[in-house]
Design goal:
The structure is a single chain. With 505 residues, the protein is α/β, with parallel strands linked by helices. 31% of the residues lie in helices and 16% in strands. It has 15 helices and 20 strands. The strands form six sheets. A five-stranded parallel sheet has the order 3-2-1-7-20, with helices on one face. Strands 9-18-10-11-14 form a five-stranded parallel sheet. Helix 1 packs parallel to helix 11. The radius of gyration is 23 Å and the shape is globular.
């Protein structure tokens, strides 16, 4: 009989909801904590900038058992995703498991002789501690803002200028009649630049360090999901721990693979006129593809053509007399400075002695299957396995994690096996695929299929691929199908005798 556990779920975004459902349906006592007033994580409305939309199409960006509504566009807007997340929480009655407006202050090993962790929690004016047998950390990679400042910022603000993180750009009226400078080259940066230009900004300057490959929603008229999200395409990247057969095939097809990627680059250069804007990246696209590969914001390059958005390579050096002075020497008129500089990756409430076991000196995370560290027992991460299909990735790892915690994996790894695998993956990232080091190495893209294959094999799935081999090789991941694959894994409920299953599982 599997012991029933008391499980803390930290975070009420997509990952936290997936984890709460997974542990709850396996019979555990789940208590979730969300510091905001609402579910949704990055999609929570007060954290979303205007016109934000998904980078992935709706049939990829979804839970296995809940398609997005038919009337949603292929790339839903932020409020639509927020409503969808709430619909999922309602479907599985997850609100009963969460305490909102509650912050985790610290997390340490229990001192009562039991395994697990003690959380220090705060809500309103109350602080308390609570013990848990297992903790699922589900704050993902976008929990705490990366806050930076530049010389002259205080004086700039005192004279009426505004400086804000991209997540604080929540009102398009901020741009009306203003000189707007957006710092960054991510999709959030380009989204805000386009929004500011559309909403009456006097000028918009996009300041970025280096050009990166950007992928439009349609490449040569073809939906990019049909070009980049295929198992066959995935095999063209230098994956980890290749087999002898894989090495031979890679060598044989290397010229064709090279030609394929050069063709893709040529299409992007031509369609987006990258040479005209001095935005041709130096790194080949196959070496750069990862979670940091941004989607082209509709209207971005049109804005360049119209002169409503000016791209400038460099960064902000300082503020001076109503201007952002760039490292290029350019003095750019500036009333509003939007810093699209991302988020800080980390687990700040975890004590340093545990963080040192989790994070390498170069910032890479020591996690097996992008979820657990053998030196940190009774805890795991959901949402660290970021990808182009984030919701599905979170649901897959949540189902893997509860089985790992219960010792119910068909391939339950030993500590030694986990350490060896972690070392192998770290070596691969550092030597063979530097692009995989982004976000602390916590990204499964572009290896969605391989990552899911490993998780399903660990869980003992009897079905893990579509019967149509052509569709399996040349179609993007099917979220509903993965629901069936999960259903083919051994089922159980903690606290119940094996072989006795309640209805619905």
């Amino acid at each position: 009989m599997t012991k029933r556990k008391t499980v803390a779920v930290i975070g009420g975004g997509v990952s936290g909801l997936a984890a709460a459902k997974a542990f709850d349906e396996r019979g555990h006592r789940v208590l979730g904590f969300e510091r905001s007033h609402d579910f949704g994580g990055v999609w929570e409305l007060s954290r979303s900038y205007p016109d934000v939309q998904t980078q992935s199409p709706k049939d990829l960006y979804r839970f296995t058992d809940l398609p997005m509504p038919d009337d949603y566009p292929e790339w839903p807007k932020g409020p639509q995703v927020h409503a969808y997340v709430h619909a999922y929480a309602k479907k599985h009655n997850l609100a009963r498991l969460f305490r909102l407006n509650t912050t985790v202050l610290s997390m340490d090993r229990r001192t009562d002789g039991q395994s697990g962790w003690t959380l220090t929690l705060a809500a309103a004016d109350k602080t308390w501690t609570q013990d848990f047998d297992f903790v699922a950390v589900c704050t993902g990679q976008f929990s705490d803002k990366n806050i930076i400042s530049h010389p002259g910022q205080d004086a700039f603000v005192q004279t009426g200028g505004q400086v804000m993180h991209s997540s604080d750009y929540t009102d398009s009226n901020l741009a009306a009649g203003k000189n707007v400078v957006v710092l960054g080259g991510s999709k959030s940066a380009t989204d805000i630049a386009v929004n500011a230009a559309k909403n009456g900004a006097k000028s918009v300057t996009l300041v970025y360090r280096e050009p990166v490959w950007r992928v439009p929603y349609f490449i040569g008229g073809i939906n990019f999901k049909r070009l980049l999200y295929m198992r066959a395409q995935e095999l063209q990247f230098n994956g980890w721990n290749p087999s002898i057969t894989g090495k031979i095939l890679s060598a044989l097809f290397k010229p064709l693979i090279w030609a394929n990627f050069r063709g893709l680059e040529m299409m992007l250069k031509t369609q987006l006129k990258l040479k005209k804007w001095d935005m041709v990246p130096k790194v080949p696209i196959e070496k750069d593809a990862s979670c940091s590969l941004p989607i082209v914001t509709p209207g971005l390059f049109e804005g360049f053509e119209a002169g409503t958005i000016k791209p400038v390579r460099g960064t902000i050096d300082h503020y001076e007399d109503g201007h952002a002075v760039l490292t290029t020497g350019d003095r750019v008129p500036c009333d509003v400075s939007v810093l699209a500089v991302g988020w800080k990756l980390g687990v700040p409430y975890l004590a340093k002695e545990y963080q040192d076991k989790l994070i390498e000196p170069d910032g890479q995370y020591r996690v097996y299957r992008l979820s657990v560290n053998p030196d940190l027992p009774d805890m795991g991460f959901v949402g660290f396995n970021s990808s182009f299909c984030t919701i599905l990735s979170a649901e897959m790892i949540a189902n893997w994690l509860v089985r790992f915690a219960d010792g119910q994996l068909a391939n339950q790894p030993s500590d030694r096996q986990m350490q060896d695998n972690i070392d192998m993956m770290l070596d691969w990232r550092r030597k063979e695929r530097p692009a995989a080091q982004v976000y602390g190495g916590l990204c499964s893209a572009p290896f969605h299929f391989r990552h899911f294959d490993e998780l399903l094999a660990d869980m003992g799935a009897t079905v893990s691929k579509r019967s149509n081999l052509f569709a399996e090789q040349f179609s993007y991941p099917n979220a509903a199908a993965y629901g069936g694959y999960l259903a083919s894994t051994p089922q159980y409920v903690a606290g119940q005798e094996e072989g006795i299953m309640p209805a619905g599982l």
